[in-house]
Amino acid sequence: MTVPRLRARLRQEEGQGLVELLAALALLTIAIMALLSAFSSSIVSLRRAGAEGTALTVADRQMEAYRALPYACVTLNSGTAPSGCPAASSFPNPYSADQSPTGADTPDHLTYTVHTDITAANAKEKQVSVTVKDADGTIRAAQSSLFSASAFPSP
Fold this sequence. Notes:
It is a single chain. The chain is of the alpha+beta class and 155 residues long. Helices cover 40% and strands 20% of the residues. It has a four-stranded antiparallel beta sheet, with helices on one face. The longest helix is centred in the first third of the chain and has 52 residues, at 16-67.
């Protein structure tokens, strides 16, 4: 191939490198956007899982407060201990139906609302249900246990 023919051929391909570069940049941009979308949804999933894990921890703490009490003390009493029962003033308070533990009481330092229901299943059993909601009012955890008088120590 002679030099003039080579120059003529190269002139015909002017701008080809720019078109290829733009195509490569477009593909790279699409790939990066897909990765960012995956990271974004992962962060949302991790936050949701963290909130549910914390809510389960809060519900467990409330339920453990009932397990540590004598059977006669498993009752809701406007936040104060009935006569002859151990006192509780901060979270978890087994005598209060509704509580809002402070950020210092939760592992993720967020605010949750804890609601407790106690119903008599029969003369010797009580059903304790604990529901934990986040600041938006979404239920994040719910636990329920049946407490039997025969399984508790007497006061």
